Amino acid sequence: MSNESAFLPFALPDVGEAEIEAVADAIRSGWVSTGPKVKEFESEFSAFLGDGLHAVSVNSATAGLHLSLEALGIGPGDEVLVPTWTFTATAEVVRYLGAIPVLVDVDPGTLNIDLNDASARLTKRTRAVMPVHFAGLAVSSTELEWFGSLNGLEVVEDAAHAFPASDGRLPVGAGTSAATVYSFYATKTMTTGEGGMIVTRRPEIADRARVMRLHGIDRDAFARYRTNKPSWHYDVVAPGYKYNLTDPAAAMGLVQLARAEQMRLRRQEIAAAYTSAFSTSLLQLPVPAAPGAVHSWHLYVVRLPEGIDRDAFVGWVAEAGVGTSVHFIPLHLQPFWRDFGDHEPQDFPVATREFSRVVSLPIFSSMTTDQVSRVIEAVTSALRHLGGGE
Ligand SMILES: *Cc1c(COP(=O)(O)O)cnc(C)c1O
Questions:
Q1: At what angle are helices 17-29 and 247-277 packed, to 10 degrees?
Q2: Is 272 left (phi over 0), alpha (psi -120 to 50) or beta?
Q3: pLDDT band (50, 70, 90) for residue 226
Q4: How high is the pLDDT of residue 390?
Q5: Is 2 a residue whose pLDDT tops 50?
Q6: Of the residues 33, 123, 216, 273, which has the fewest C-beta atoms closer than 10 A?
Q7: Which ligand 1 atom sits nearest the alpha carbon of residue 161?
Q8: Alpha-carbon 303 to chain mean position
């Protein structure tokens, strides 16, 4: 499997024997659904980010984004600002609640939400904004606070790429946004297989999300076995969802959390190797984090020079045994969202233009030095042969 000459996939989870043992122990304990490991994972996760934070685990970031908007009372007729440069989950959860995602163009450098363009798309019905920390480069918490309070909007951060990350002032998740949501999907910076986490300073949001993640029941299974009320008692207070994380997943998350900074440092090393190797090429390289800020380096996205066709580049690199990907196909170019918002490509000029030339290179923490070199060689040879060389 780990044959050095085998095809290098775009992404692989960095999991080992410690994760396998933790999951096996969780299964042996008998808590195969939500139990004590979930509680422990939530308290360790919030402690990692700072004081005064509530963490509510869920079975995906999509579920977490949905519950965050639900807890804020977002509903039919409301509008929510969403960058077009994201995964469809960010926008789809707005529709789950009958509200309207209003797509926003991105900054040409960072590919993060352009708050000037967001201002231009405000209406009387705008209730919230959902910034995405694309690739793991934090959107400024100062600008988000300012934009939210100036316009009376709730801020729900899609931090699926941003664990751990910081804008230099605050870790992502430790600011004053209504909620910040992380993903523990297989390819993200830490994984529980499937999973996610909501982090908030507002106890009423945490309480509502805890109830709604488990059928609208007022307390979870763990608490039920530890109160004075009879163990069979529970109250249904709302028609909730089935979004709870399991103990085996949380046990894996605890090991990954303990390794998160070490895994981030490895990705930072890989990013530095790419940046140094490609600094004299015609590739446009990712914007680095500001001094004092922390980039999670979930993705390393290069932009091809004019005259190099992306499909030809991706094909050449794949021929050399290296997998790549594209993040993202902007939502306004996806059939559903294009028709839903009646969008034309020119409504989002930056995203439309940049989309045609982005390629994501492999950057996962279990990559070996040889594999990093293979990526560099494959990219260099593609540029040389396709015309974008030095
Ligand atoms: C992966 C991802 C999500 C969804 O995460 P899940 O845990 O799979 O639900 C949401 N937003 C962005 C930007 C993502 O990359």
A1: 170
A2: alpha
A3: low
A4: 45
A5: no
A6: 123
A7: 15
A8: 21
CB 132 within 8 A of CB 160: yes
Identify the band that residue 218 occupies on the pLDDT scale cut at 50, 70 and 90: confident
How close is the Cα of 161 to the center of ligand 1, in Å? 8
Tell me the CA–centroid distance for residue 189 and ligand 1, in Å: 11
Of 172, 211, 197, 217, whose CA–CA distance to 71 is shortest? 211
CA of 339 from ligand 1 middle (Å) equals 22
If one counts every other C-beta atom within 10 angstroms of the C-beta of residue 368, the result is: 11
Distance CA 67, CA 198 (A): 9
- Of the candidates 348, 350, 299, 293, the one whose C-alpha atom is nearest the C-alpha of residue 139 is 293
Of 60, 183, 188, the residue with max ligand 1 atoms within 8 A of its CB, to mutate for a pocket test, comes to 183
> What positions carry a catalytic annotation?
188
Q: List pocket residues of ligand 1, CB cut-off 6 Å.
A: 60-62, 86-87, 89-90, 132, 158, 160-161, 183, 185, 196
Q: Which of 88, 82, 68, 299 is nearest to 180 (CA)?
A: 68
Q: How far apart are CA 247 and CA 72, in angstroms?
A: 28
Q: Give the Å distance between the CA of 87 and the centre of ligand 1.
A: 6
**Which of 59, 68, 185, 241 is the best mutation target for the ligand 1 pocket, counting ligand atoms within 8 Å of the beta carbon and taking the most?**
185
pLDDT score, position 128 = 99
* Rounded distance between C-alpha atoms, residue 370 and residue 281, angstroms: 21
Instruction: Report pLDDT digits (tens) over 347-361.
Output: 999 999 999 999 999
Pinpoint the alpha helices (H) of 281-368: 310-319, 335-341, 349-355
Computed on alpha carbons and rounded to an integer, the radius of gyration of the chain in Å comes to 21
Q: What are 101-137's pLDDT values in tens digits?
A: 999 999 999 999 999 999 999 999 999 999 999 999 9
pTM, two decimal places: 0.96
Inform me whether the pLDDT recorded for 316 exceeds 60: yes
